[in-house]
């Protein structure tokens, strides 16, 4: 029990120390930098279809624990990207509210998923279908914890394309919220099983997903497919997701 407590709160303490060391340079969200991070070429210079999932630390103290994830799509030959976020203000599903690869209120994004060409073209219709039919799309549906939040939304899209074998980082709090209403069953990849008590407590075991213990949103586990340890607060330690 003491080891479990250390493995959960130790990494969170490290993340908190890092946050305090640099200070909250993004305290004023109204003036925080939301410009392009330079991860994407101009759409006119990237003619192939494209799918990206990005993650960046959330605003203020919440960034100690969690990241915000979003989706970027572009069909072959399209001259613009489409960005989808799920937010707590206004209509929950926000389309092109920010630069496709923009900083999240000052925080640099990291790439969680990158797919191009024919593979991207095949899965874009499936992802758009999730966006168009997502059940939590009304005012007031967003719940920061345990969900449905931005990471629940992105996880739902990824679950629709299991062939991509994509997973969100352990700091994507809300990804384990049972948006489909089932509290147990097979993982979306079909390679394992999960049980979730409303997103508050849960366990996932799968070849694609790895082994993840969810304790009130804090994820602790490991990945064998792409060897890594998963910690709350600090995130993934080992091979990157992409």
How would you describe the overall organization of this protein?
The protein is an alpha+beta fold. Helix content is 20%, strand content 27%. A seven-stranded antiparallel sheet has the order 6-7-8-9-10-11-12. Strands 4-3-2-1-5 form a five-stranded antiparallel sheet. Strand 7 (192-197) and strand 8 (201-206) form a beta hairpin. Helix 2 (117-133) crosses helix 3 (150-159). The longest helix is centred in the first third of the chain and has 21 residues, at 2-22. The radius of gyration is 17 Å and the shape is globular. The mean pLDDT is 93.
Residue ranges: pLDDT <50 for 5 or more in a row? none
Fraction of residues in β-strands: 25-35%
Largest sheet: 7 strands, antiparallel
CA-based gyration radius: 17 Å
Side-by-side strand order of the widest sheet = 6-7-8-9-10-11-12
What is the H/E string? HEEEEEHHEEEEEEE
Helix content: 10-25%
**What is the β-strand count?**
12
Q: Structural class given helices, strands, pairing?
A: alpha+beta
Average pLDDT reading: 93
Q: Which descriptor suits the 3D outline? A: globular
> Which assembly state applies to the chains in this document?
single chain
| Count of DSSP-assigned helices | 3
The N- and C-terminal alpha carbons lie at a distance of 33 Å
């Amino acid at each position: 029990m003491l080891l479990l407590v250390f493995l959960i709160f130790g990494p969170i303490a490290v993340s908190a120390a890092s946050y305090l060391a640099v200070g909250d340079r993004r305290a004023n969200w109204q003036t925080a930098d939301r410009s392009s991070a330079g991860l994407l070429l101009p759409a006119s210079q990237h003619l192939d279809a494209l799918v990206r999932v990005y993650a960046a630390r959330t605003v203020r103290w919440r960034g100690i624990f969690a990241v915000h994830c979003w989706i970027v799509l572009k069909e072959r030959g399209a001259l613009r990207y489409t960005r989808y976020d799920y937010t707590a203000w206004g209509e929950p599903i926000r389309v092109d509210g920010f630069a496709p690869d923009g900083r999240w209120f000052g925080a640099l994004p990291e790439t969680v998923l990158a797919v191009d060409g024919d593979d991207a073209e095949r899965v874009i219709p499936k992802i758009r279908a999730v966006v168009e039919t997502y059940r939590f799309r009304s005012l007031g549906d967003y719940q920061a914890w345990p969900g449905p939040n931005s990471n629940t939304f992105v996880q739902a899209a990824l679950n629709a394309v299991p062939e991509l074998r994509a997973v969100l980082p352990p700091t994507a709090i809300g990804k384990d919220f049972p948006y489909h209403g089932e509290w147990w069953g097979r993982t979306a990849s079909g390679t394992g099983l999960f049980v979730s008590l409303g997103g508050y407590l849960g366990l996932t075991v799968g070849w694609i997903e790895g082994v993840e213990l969810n304790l009130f949103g804090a994820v602790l586990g490991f990945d064998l497919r792409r060897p890594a340890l998963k910690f709350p607060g600090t995130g993934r330690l080992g091979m990157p997701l992409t």
